[in-house]
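Quick start: what a row looks like.
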Amino acid sequence: MAKAPSTQATRLLKQAGIPYTEHLYRYEEHGGTRVSAQELGVDEHTVVKTLVMEDETGAPLIILMHGDREVSTKELARQIGAKAIQPCKPEVAHRHSGYLVGGTSPLGTKKAMPIHAEASIFDLERIYLNGGSRGFLVGLDPKDLDRVLALRRVSVAIP
């Protein structure tokens, strides 16, 4: 089996002493969390996607969301005091995060950005988050995210 890559995300987890597991899977373009959950044999609800978005001024932010849910951008804007929120174009997201879309992690981003997380991910025992490379997830206790990320919990999930 292939060896998991060393990324900014995994280096940050190691440096912080956060226990995590490494999970490689066959990356599929536009496959999203459905494919990774299927490959890993886990519930898609536990696979947390990292989305880079921007407000009406173009200021970037990250939102962490369950793989089987969508983000209410209107509700997110309301909860964080923005006029509007929209997803960044892939090349803009890459410029902000330093990661390719499909391999974006909230850990070890190129630019510091506000990070918002769907509050209900913290109800799970374990989540699977992108490890900073396409086809690579890290499994960890979601409560450990508070130890390494300055994040704000929001309730913006659409089933």
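That is the whole record. The mean pLDDT is 95. The radius of gyration is 14 Å.
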